[in-house]
Design brief:
Blueprint (H helix, E strand, L loop, with lengths): L37 E8 L1 H8 L10 H17 L6 E6 L1 E2 L18 E2 L2 E5 H6 L2 H13 L3 H14 L9 E6 L32 E8 L5 E10 H15 L9
Helix pairs in contact: 2-4, 2-6
Length: 255
């Protein structure tokens, strides 16, 4: 290989210095009980949809497309699930942390996982009743909490507790795959790929995971496609909430 592989896990050695609520031990009933029939749908968000989402936010509020879309989906998904207002809802971001490490930095050929899953937490009532800005700022604060010390603290936690499971109750996990360049793979005589991403929402038996994948729809518009998995009644409410907030039914074409 042009870059020699490196497996120096000792470079991540540290002590637990943060409170990691993403891995706290909880005994709660999930908002999507195991065994409930689920339906999965994909939703396209292009320039028009992102403009509509940003109209729900204060003008001048700095935010990325990831933050705007994630806060919007978190809120709509909560409304769709209709939990008790006091239910604790979680939004977990999967964040690549290689660039956070500098003392010492990871060598170029390091091939181990270097990502963390910080969590934003709010009551269902606050998410459903407060403006979208509330959810967005929580997500921004969660992203900003990922420092080098935080990343090393997660590593130490994994070592000391034997890789504990993250909290699943009330949790919605998002992973941004828009910059992985899946669509640029060259298959020779078969040409470019039509789609490069996950086939459905969820991981194993946990449905509360969505991936953001670059996509070009049938009208030639480029944007982001997001798969969502929910119980049938909740999916119906989710679609109605999107249609209502975006003010345009055509803003949520089904793939």
């Amino acid at each position: 290989p042009s870059v020699p592989p490196v497996w120096d896990r000792h470079l991540l050695t540290a002590s637990v210095t943060h409170t990691h609520r993403e891995y706290e031990e909880k005994d709660e009933i999930d908002t999507i009980p195991i065994g409930v029939p689920l339906v999965s749908r994909s939703f396209f968000f292009g320039a028009g949809e992102f403009s509509a989402i940003r109209r729900l936010l204060p003008s001048g509020l700095h935010n990325t497309t990831f933050e705007a879309l994630t806060s919007f989906l978190w809120r709509c998904r909560t409304v769709a699930l209709s939990p008790n207002p006091n239910t604790e809802m979680r939004l977990t971001c999967i964040i690549n942390s290689r660039g956070k490490l500098s003392n010492p930095p990871l060598p170029q050929g390091y091939y181990g996982n270097v990502f963390v899953i910080p969590v934003a937490i709010a009551s269902a009532g606050d998410l459903m009743e407060k403006p979208l800005e509330f959810a967005l700022r929580l997500i921004q604060e969660t992203k900003a909490s990922v420092t080098e010390d935080y990343v090393r603290s997660v590593t130490a936690l994994m070592t000391s507790r034997g890789r504990p499971m993250f909290v699943t109750a009330g949790n919605y996990i998002v992973s941004d795959l828009r910059h992985f360049d899946f669509g640029k793979v060259d298959f020779g005589p078969w040409g470019k790929p039509v789609y490069g991403g996950t086939a459905k929402a969820g991981i194993a038996v946990f449905p509360g995971v969505s991936f953001y994948v670059p996509f070009k729809n049938k009208m030639g518009e480029t944007g982001t496609v997001v798969a969502i998995s929910l119980p049938v009644p909740a999916m119906e409410r989710f679609v109605k909430e999107l249609d209502h907030l975006l003010k345009r039914p055509e803003c949520v074409p089904r793939i």
